[in-house]
Design brief:
The complex is a heterotrimer of chains A (630), B (523) and C (101).
Chain A (H helix, E strand, L loop, with lengths): L5 H22 L5 H25 L4 E10 L2 E9 L1 H24 L6 H20 L3 H19 L6 H32 L4 H10 L8 H15 L8 H4 L5 H10 L4 H8 L6 H22 L5 H21 L3 H28 L12 H4 L1 H15 L5 H15 L3 H26 L6 H4 L6 H16 L5 H6 L12 H11 L1 H22 L7 H5 L1 H7 L4 H48 L6 H19 L9
Chain B lengths: L2 H16 L7 H25 L10 E11 L4 E9 L1 H19 L8 H20 L3 H22 L5 H30 L6 H10 L4 H18 L8 H8 L2 H11 L1 H14 L1 H27 L4 H22 L2 H32 L10 H4 L1 H14 L6 H13 L4 H27 L15 H19 L2 H19 L21 H5 L1
Antiparallel strand pairs in B: 1-2
Chain C lengths: L4 H21 L3 H26 L3 H31 L13
Classes of the chains: A mainly alpha (630), B mainly alpha (523), C mainly alpha (101).
């Protein structure tokens, strides 16, 4: 296919720039830290500029591709799809990616794997852009796997640390379980419709809604399995907290802003495939994830882990939004979340950097005055995450809550409100304990603010975290995805739109935040140790130990797959290689031993057998020998 | 000289050339071997470039035929007949590349080098000869010509205290498999009554005049199990991990990578086109048995404590996917199987090459003794990681394309088995490969490996060549599939004509009753 | 009494049987050797008698060959045996086991 529109020229360039950077770093400049960083940042910067150009040019849906595989009924193209949805996602990925990479330049200073780090980041950016731009399910799966690979490489970046190596492995394998469902779902869809192209699928399904037949719900849920893995939904959520072993900018980019959002993005892309039954399951999974993760966040003491559980919880929110039938609210929340969560993680990174890799919030305290820039941006991020008006999180969260109300999903609304309160609680706890109060650790006294290469990206991310709510993203999305309501024309109207549009949802949301905040302030203002374990006891311990999911899974894997492999190994060793193979050889050996008895080495015995043989032959062959009477 | 003949005659001639070189001139011996395999590789690549799927003589390109033994009195002719089509083209090219890589990596050999290189070149010549021959006599002859050096090399240059046991095991197993297949081939020859071993003639004959179903049912399993044993079909697979774990690096690379594919090739080239009814009846069994490879051997691989045994078992597991693709008898599945044969060849060569280097450097392959080697050996570690990732089906490598096509192709015929195979490919494969990376490359490094050196140029070149081949296959699969497709389509079509029905999706093992009854069952 | 072919054959068979028995059960290598000669001569007797009664000289021709070969064999064999006896001071087969594993 010849490109005709500028978008069709730019899309491949955006996609391949980061790959080119990764290849160049790996092959040519891997010994030069500075150049590696420049190549990587330059490529993602150019990709960002190109994405913004595309967005400003605007205009419709473009598809470009080449045949990648064509055998029989299996036709797969290497195709790129540029439409409003992928454009928005392109800007998020390249924009946040650019800032995170700039931040990394300071954060990773002096690391022996500096250029390797940037090569991996570029590889990740390439893979993530691939998911965003993929126009068919197989390409999406291909980049899905590549994203899993780059996530694995970056989590276990400090591979000499056993915990990091284990965490990477766990993340990859957990994702693989989800990918099993994803691939299976793709297979079912292909078998039923004969096409893998998303656009064609949508057209075909629009013509014949029952094309997928009885397996429609099943196929949809199998595809959702991919999202469960990648977006760390219950029950495959266990890998994300462990993934915090990776460098903090990686957590910001991959495990908060972009990769984990890929599942939500995929659900929005394939929303037309999902049946009402499937959506119901999706909503339940999302709600359970957001609630459980918020509970687990209550009792974490590691600054990154608190943010990780909050990410889980927010992802659950987005998935729930898809489940209640408003993918545009999900995408909205994904967008705002990408900004403020990336900023929070980078803020945490700045803290960790300043404290020389101290991550326990109870060993912090009093950072407010020592790290003023970090504190202010962190505070903005917290406000946005909790959903305080007029920060971005308020608007996107409100979009979800109001559409839950509007679609009659009252359970989802209740859980959403509850989780909003819980979010306010644990985030207030985090800010109060880490930044407020008095210093509780030795590292705090000598610390000073991070260099500007790290704080500037924080401020740059703070801008959209504040204003993304009345920027018109919801209006933009409403034109793309079903279930939206674009209503405001000016930014001033947009600021108050949620309150005018659905006052009940907005009121509940804000009340929940106030309640959670007040409760946390009562408990943690000037606290020197956590009061909850004393008062809540066992419950707090269960929350701290994350409801023992890891232990339960380890047990389940041990008694299922582990036991199976032990049995198989035993069978292979003793039955097949032992009993059968050695049995055959043993039998042959025995037979040989028996025959050896005849070989006495005594010439006269041989002569006897010879003579006896001749007699027998003569007896059998001579005529008349048998008939003795003749 | 015909290009195809040159490809396998160059290594054989080089083997003869080495004979007069005094054994003290070690570089001379090595140079001859390297040059010969390099020339062979270049010729192979030329073949690949010149191969044009559009021009065909009875479906074969570069077809060359001349009588070798012609005894009109008793009506026996054996012809020297070579040719390639989409099915063996990739195998031949892959074979030449792996052969060059194996020769490069043979630098580890430190005794009886002259004999070693002679045997290696004979093995290479035999392998390539087997894949280009279109006469069953030569096909079999070259296969055996390659097998004999394999045994000797494992016995003499092999590693580990158990190498005699390994040699015994692999020799007996493979001889048994070859013998069973020979019995099948002889019966096939007798059935035809053509007094010729020519593959094209025999195939044409059996497609025009199908063999009786009773004989098909008898001969097909002979070929299936005979060839199956050669490819480590479950439960006849235990020779493979043991044999490869003890073989010298080059032998393991060549056997696991290339020679092993002979059984699959025979199945696809001889058994299925000539006996479609037998195939319809027995391929269901094959699909069940390949589950033993895919699932069972994957599980076994998870438990291995020795890197070479892990790789060996994973290689056996990968072969299961090829069997599944063949058993599906669909265009997508069989094409995928052919792609996977080639990809697996590169991958097996790559992993055995790297683990051979590790073994030579460290003197052990026990996983527990390693750890953190990535920092000490950045090159070997990185490529081992790439190989492991390719092994667990990561997109971008040829294996993904092959497995993906096999799974999509076999879905219709064997849905349950396909489901299990997906699980095995994604999850079980991931578990053992990542465990290997975690325990060998990641983590803390033991002090005793501080003195390890990274690979030199003789190791780097082959490793890079193999990796690039895998990547090319994975990124541009049409390079291969467009060439494979027409010929697979012929085979698949031939199994559906001549009154033979393909296995019904619901009950693949059900015997085919009558051709005119089957369509009714579909209504 | 009329001596017929059967009588010759019976004598030949008895001779052969005695010779065979000697070969099979005796342990002295010289006796075994004599047993072998006896079997040869039994065969000769049988051949000559057949030749005489069938009026066909082929059988007698064959006997000459047998006698010649037997003579050669005796010459070589006895020489070997004597040499062996000198070396080992024994003619007992169970003691001549050097070649046995």
């Amino acid at each position: 296919m010849q490109p005709t529109h500028i978008a069709e020229y730019l899309a491949p360039i955006i996609l391949f720039l980061p790959l080119a950077a990764a290849v160049v770093i790996a092959l040519f400049v891997r010994d030069d830290d500075e150049q590696s960083a420049q190549f990587s940042i330059g490529s993602v910067g150019l990709a960002f500029v190109a994405s913004v150009t595309l967005f400003l040019l605007g205009g419709g849906r473009h598809e470009i591709g080449a045949t990648w595989l064509d055998v029989g009924g299996l036709q797969v193209s290497f195709g790129l799809l540029i439409d409003d949805l992928s454009l928005l996602m392109l800007m998020i990925v390249t924009g946040v990616g650019l800032l995170v990479q700039i931040f990394s330049k300071g954060y990773m200073k002096g690391d022996p794997g500096y250029s390797r780090y940037f090569a991996f980041l570029s590889l990740f950016t390439f893979s993530m852009l691939g998911i965003v731009l993929a126009d068919n399910l197989v390409m999406m799966f291909v980049f899905w796997e590549l994203v899993g690979l780059s996530s694995y490489l970056l989590i276990s970046f400090w591979f000499h640390k056993p915990s990091a190596a284990d965490a990477g492995k766990k993340a990859f394998l957990t994702n693989r379980v989800g990918d099993f469902g994803f691939l299976f779902g793709i297979l079912l869809v292909w078998a039923a419709t004969g096409t893998l192209n998303i656009g064609e699928l949508a057209t075909k399904l629009a013509v014949d809604p029952h094309l997928l037949g009885a397996g429609a719900t099943c196929a949809g849920l199998l595809l959702f399995c991919g999202a469960i893995g990648k977006s760390a939904q219950f029950p495959l959520h266990v890998w994300l907290p462990d993934a915090m072993e990776g460098p903090t900018p990686v957590s910001a980019l991959i495990h908060a802003a972009t990769m984990v959002a890929a599942g939500v993005y995929m659900l929005c892309r394939l929303f037309f495939l999902l049946t009402p039954d499937a959506l119901e399951v999706i909503a339940v999974i999302g709600a359970v994830t957001s609630f459980l993760a918020a509970l687990m966040a209550f009792q974490q003491n590691d600054i990154k882990r608190i943010l990780a559980y909050s990410t889980l919880s927010q992802l659950g929110y987005m998935v729930m939004a898809v489940g209640i039938g408003s993918p545009n609210a999900a995408m909205y929340h994904l967008t705002t979340h990408a900004f403020f969560k990336a900023m929070l993680f980078l803020g945490a990174g700045s803290v960790i950097h300043a404290l020389h890799h101290e991550q326990d919030i109870w060993k912090m305290g009093g950072l407010k005055s020592r790290l003023p820039g970090t504190y202010r941006t962190f505070w903005i991020g917290t406000m946005a995450l909790c959903g305080v008006w007029p920060f971005a999180g308020f608007f996107s969260k409100d979009a979800i809550l109001s559409s839950a109300l509007g679609n009659g999903a009252y359970c989802a609304f209740l859980i959403g409100t509850l989780v909003a309160a819980m979010t306010a609680f644990y985030m207030t706890r985090l800010v109060l304990v880490a930044f407020g109060g008095v210093p509780r650790g030795d590292g705090v006294f000598g610390c000073h603010e991070s260099p500007s290469v790290m704080t500037r990206p924080l401020w740059l991310l703070a801008i959209p975290s504040v204003i993304a709510g009345f920027w018109g993203i919801d209006v933009y999305l409403a034109e793309t995805l079903p279930g939206g309501h674009g209503h405001a024309s000016t930014w001033y109207e947009a600021m108050f739109a949620p309150i005018n549009h659905s006052p009940l949802a907005a009121m509940f949301g804000l009340l929940a935040v106030a309640f959670g905040h007040a409760f946390a302030r009562r408990l943690y203002a000037n606290a020197v140790s956590d009061p909850l374990p004393l008062s809540a006891g066992l419950l707090a311990k269960i929350m701290r130990d994350r409801f023992y999911f890891d232990e339960i899974y380890a047990f389940l894997i041990r008694i299922s797959q582990g036991a199976l492999s032990t049995v198989a190994d035993w069978f292979d060793r003793w039955i097949i290689a032992g009993l059968f193979v050695r049995g055959v050889s043993g039998f042959t050996d025995l037979f040989g031993r028996a025959l050896r008895m005849l070989q006495t080495g005594n010439l006269q015995t041989y002569a006897f057998w010879l003579a006896a043989g001749i007699v027998v032959i003569l007896f059998l062959t001579l005529p008349g020998a048998k008939g003795a009477g003749h | 000289m015909n290009l195809l003949s040159a490809i396998f005659l160059v290594p054989l001639l080089a083997a003869v050339l080495i004979v007069p070189i005094p054994r003290t001139i070690r570089w001379g011996i090595r140079l001859v071997a390297l040059m010969a395999t390099f020339v062979s590789m270049v010729l192979g690549l030329a073949l690949f470039v010149k191969f044009d799927a559009a021009t065909a003589v009875n479906g074969f390109k570069f077809d060359y035929m001349t009588d070798w033994v012609s005894l009109p009195g008793i009506g026996l002719t054996i012809a020297y007949h070579v040719g390639v089509d989409g099915i063996n083209l990739g195998l031949v090219v892959m074979g030449t590349i792996v052969a060059f890589a194996a020769t490069c990596l043979s630098k580890e050999i430190d005794r009886f080098e002259k004999e070693y290189y002679i045997l290696l070149l004979i093995m290479i010549g035999g392998i390539l000869g087997a894949f280009v021959s279109l006469d069953i006599f030569f096909l079999y002859f070259f296969h055996e010509l390659a097998l004999v050096p394999t045994f000797i090399m494992i016995g003499i240059w092999g590693r580990g205290p158990d190498r005699n046991h390994a040699t015994f095991k692999i020799t007996l197993y493979l001889s048994l498999g070859a013998l069973i297949a020979l019995a099948g081939l002889v019966m096939l020859y007798l059935q035809s009554g053509l007094k010729t071993f020519d593959l094209v003639a025999l195939t044409g004959h059996f497609q025009a005049h199908p063999m009786g179903e009773a004989s098909q049912r008898l001969i097909f399993p002979l070929l299936m199990f005979g060839f199956g044993i050669l490819v480590s079909l479950w439960p006849f697979h235990t020779w493979a991990p043991t044999g490869y774990a003890h073989a010298p690096t080059a032998t393991a690379m060549l056997h696991a990578g290339v020679l092993k594919k002979f059984g699959l090739y025979g199945l696809l080239r001889i058994a299925i086109p000539m006996m479609p009814a037998g195939a319809a009846e027995w391929l269901g069994v094959l699909a069940l048995l390949c589950l033993g490879n895919i699932l069972y051997c994957g599980l076994v691989a998870m438990k291995q404590r020795d890197l070479n045994f892990l790789i060996g078992n994973s290689s056996v597991a990968h072969v299961g996917f090829i069997f599944l693709g063949i058993a599906s008898l669909s265009l997508v599945g069989v094409t995928g199987a052919v792609v996977l044969m080639i990809a697996h060849g590169f991958l097996a060569a790559l992993t055995f090459g790297l683990s051979g280097w590790l073994r030579q450097q460290t003197g052990t392959t026990e996983i527990a003794k390693f750890g953190g080697l990535l920092r000490q050996l950045p090159f070997v570690g990185t490529f081992l990681m790439i190989a492991m990732m390719a092994g667990c089906g990561l997109p971008g490598f040829g294996n993904f394309v092959g497995e993906f096509m096999v799974l999509f192709g076999s879905w219709q015929a064997y849905p349950v088995i396909t489901g299990i195979a997906i699980w095995s490919a994604l999850v079980i494969g991931g578990v053992y490969m990542l465990r290997a990376i975690r325990d060998v490359l990641h983590g803390q490094m033991d002090e005793q490996w501080k003195s390890l050196r990274d690979a030199d140029v003789f190791r780097r070149v082959p490793v890079v060549i193999l990796t690039v081949s895998l990547l090319l296959m994975g990124i541009f699969p049409r390079l291969l599939t467009d060439k494979i497709k027409p010929d697979v389509a012929r085979i698949v079509a031939s199994t559906k004509t001549g009154g033979m029905a393909k296995p019904t999706p619901s009950s693949p093992t059900k015997p085919v009753v009558n051709s005119h009854e089957v369509p009714k069952a579909h209504h | 009494m009329n001596v017929g072919l059967e009588h010759f054959q019976i004598v030949s068979a008895v001779l052969f049987g005695i010779g065979l028995l000697g070969v099979l059960i005796r342990r002295n290598i010289f006796v075994i050797y004599m047993g072998l000669e006896m079997m040869l001569n039994a065969a000769n007797l049988s051949l000559v008698s057949f030749s005489r009664f069938n009026n066909d000289l082929d059988g007698q021709l064959m006997v000459f060959f047998v006698i010649t070969v037997a003579a050669a064999e005796v010459a070589v064999g006895l020489a070997l045996l004597v040499a062996l006896y000198r070396k080992r001071q024994s003619a007992h087969v169970e003691e001549l086991t050097t070649l046995k594993l």
